[in-house]
Design brief:
- The chain is α/β, with parallel strands linked by helices and 112 residues long.
- Helices cover 39% and strands 15% of the residues.
- The protein contains four helices and five strands, in the order βαβαβαβαβ.
- It is globular, with a radius of gyration of 14 Å.
C-alpha cells in the first residue's frame, strides 16, 4: 500500500494528444453522477460517448435517450467488445469498480 507522497510506478501515458478530446467513450454506470457530472463535462469538452451499460437496463436506456448516446450495451462484455469504444468511464459503486476496471484494462481499453 502506498502512503501520501509516494510515487506509484504505473505504466501510464496521456491518451489525448494535441488537444484533441475525440476519443470515443463507453460508460459503465448510469446513475446521477453520470447524468449530472460526467455527461455534461464530456459534452462541454466535445468528447464522443458511444455506448453505456448499467446493471439496471432501464436506467441505462433512460440515460442514453436523454443524452443522445447511440448504443445501450446489455452487458459489460458487449460494451468491452465494441470496436467503436476506446475509453471506458467506470462510474459504479466502489465494491464493483475493481472488477470493471480490471475487465476494461484486460480488454485493452483506456480507463477513466
Amino acid at each position: 500500500m502506498t502512503t501520501l507522497g509516494e510515487t506509484l510506478d504505473l505504466a501510464t501515458r496521456p491518451i489525448v494528444e494535441d488537444g484533441d478530446p475525440s476519443l470515443p467513450i463507453g460508460i459503465v454506470g448510469a446513475g446521477a453522477i453520470v447524468r449530472d457530472a460526467h455527461l455534461p463535462a464530456y459534452r462541454a469538452a466535445g468528447w464522443d460517448v458511444r455506448a453505456i451499460h448499467d446493471i439496471d437496463a432501464e436506467a441505462a436506456e433512460a440515460t442514453a435517450t436523454a443524452a443522445g448516446i447511440p448504443h445501450v450495451s446489455p452487458s459489460l462484455d458487449d460494451l468491452l467488445e465494441r470496436v467503436d469504444v476506446e475509453v471506458i468511464d467506470v462510474a459504479v459503486p466502489a465494491a464493483a469498480a475493481a472488477t470493471v476496471v480490471t475487465a476494461a484494462l484486460e480488454s485493452g481499453h483506456h480507463v477513466l
